[in-house]
């Protein structure tokens, strides 16, 4: 299905939702490659925690694992290095604590993470018109500290995070359930009216599994040709462009 037909169907759905409810979309944002450009300290914290907890000093191609959750990356590395599932499970909470504490303790040394172009404007524009949440493979404390360090002063009230589950689709659904509870939303309409903004093919897969519409912004490692077999509901080149922000707002029913 081409993007124009997708837009037409989405506009019909948005009009229906506006008639049936006090319309506000649920918009869930990924962090790395979507809101911020990356974090050198997050990588340092990961290496520190895996060595401290599991005694592993791995070599990781971070471009290849983009879109995987922290615990998914951890699990694959451990299995590749002969660590058992039992050992992974028995120490995963300790890993989560260690990586979070390291990041918090060294946050003043974080000198790479920056907001991507247009993000401040976009969030400021959306915050009173929609329910904004996070869905990221990052550990929650790291995600929130990272955004604060990058200069995003908006406080996301709900979300799903990589410390909650190995599977992104699971904590994506959990994030929507949190929004339903927090804002007293109709569950069926809430899921119909939810969008996930992210930057990797893994994100599209997770959104589809969670029955959430996916919007890919091409500001991460992956360019449009990488999504040939994944087909997100919408592509945005960058939120720096006023025209692209308009297309985005139109798609989620705010115009």
Task: Describe the structure using short key phrases.
alpha/beta, Rossmann fold, DNA polymerase, domain 1, six-stranded parallel β-sheet, 10 helices, globular
Layout: helices, strands, pairs:
Blueprint: H1 3-20, E1 26-29, H2 40-54, H3 70-80, H4 85-105, H5 119-126, E2 131-136, H6 140-150, E3 159-161, H7 168-183, H8 187-192, E4 194-198, H9 201-210, E5 213-217, E6 234-236, H10 242-251
Parallel strand pairs: 1-2, 1-4, 2-3, 4-5, 5-6
Helix pairs in contact: 2-4, 4-6, 7-9
Q: Describe it for me?
A:
- With about 260 residues, this protein is an alpha/beta fold.
- It folds into two domains: about 5-40 and about 115-250, HAD superfamily/HAD-like (Rossmann fold); about 40-110, DNA polymerase, domain 1 (Orthogonal Bundle), CATH 1.10.150.
- It has helices at about 5-20, 40-55, 70-80, 85-105, 120-125, 140-150, 170-185, 185-190, 200-210, 240-250; strands spanning about 25-30, 130-135, 160, 195-200, 215, 235.
- It has a six-stranded parallel beta sheet with strand order 3-2-1-4-5-6, with helices on both faces.
- Strand 2, helix 6 and strand 3 form a beta-alpha-beta unit.
- The mean pLDDT is about 90.
């Amino acid at each position: 299905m081409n993007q124009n037909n997708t837009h037409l169907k989405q506009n019909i759905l948005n009009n229906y939702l506006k008639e049936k409810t006090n319309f506000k979309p649920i918009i869930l944002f990924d962090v790395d490659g979507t809101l911020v450009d990356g974090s050198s300290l997050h990588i340092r914290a990961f290496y520190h925690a895996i060595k401290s907890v599991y005694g592993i000093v791995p070599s990781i191609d971070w471009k290849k694992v983009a879109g995987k959750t922290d615990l998914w990356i951890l699990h694959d590395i451990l299995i590749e290095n002969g660590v058992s599932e039992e050992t992974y499970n028995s120490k995963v909470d300790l890993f989560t604590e260690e990586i979070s504490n390291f990041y918090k303790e060294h946050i003043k040394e974080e000198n790479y993470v920056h907001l991507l172009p247009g993000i401040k404007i976009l969030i400021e524009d959306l915050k009173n018109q929609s329910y904004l949440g996070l869905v990221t493979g990052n550990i929650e404390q790291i995600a929130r500290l990272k955004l604060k360090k990058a200069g995003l002063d908006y406080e996301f009230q709900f979300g799903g995070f990589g410390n909650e589950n190995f599977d992104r689709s699971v904590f994506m659904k959990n994030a929507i359930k949190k929004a339903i509870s927090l804002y007293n939303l109709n569950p069926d309409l809430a899921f119909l009216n939810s969008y996930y903004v992210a930057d990797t093919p893994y994100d599209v897969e997770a959104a589809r599994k969670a029955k959430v519409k996916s919007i890919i912004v091409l500001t991460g490692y992956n360019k449009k040709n990488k999504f040939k077999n994944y087909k997100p509901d919408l592509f945005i080149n960058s939120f720096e462009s006023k025209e692209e922000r308009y297309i985005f707002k139109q798609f989620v029913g705010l115009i």
